[in-house]
Amino acid sequence: MNASPTTDTVRALPAEYLERLMRIAREVSFPQGTRLFKEGGRADRFWIIRSGTVTLDLHVPGRRAVVLETLTHNQLVGWSWLFTPHLWHLGGVATSPVRAYEFDAAAVRTMCQKDPALGAPVALWVGSVVTHRLQTMRNRLLDLYGPYGSGDSSL
């Protein structure tokens, strides 16, 4: 369930813009089992994974949360910070010890608004992540709940 490097990793963001974002990043770490965010919570930050794994999950009433995707090195964790109302659409849990770069969402949104030359590539990057995650979620949910599964043998 890992993403292709062209859609879901920092390599999809041109280096000059990534460098600008990295100037405001801070290094963080999370022990295994830490919930980074919960569905419906305020999306006020996001991360790029340096090492470890984070699973994205979806609350299903009356059942355990469904794991939709596992993210790893160089992948973006969180996209809800970019779109109003800035609430998490999924949950995220560190499934191993995680080291990551953390970004203050409001600061990044301000940078992007002040400089459209930065804002456009960041929006396209995050948009490509959203597209990938929605397709992955669709396939995963069809596998779990559809009568014949998604038919996608790559999952």
From TrEMBL:
Residues 9-78 form the Cyclic nucleotide-binding domain. Coiled coil: none annotated. PROSITE patterns: CNMP_BINDING_3. This is Cyclic nucleotide-binding domain-containing protein.
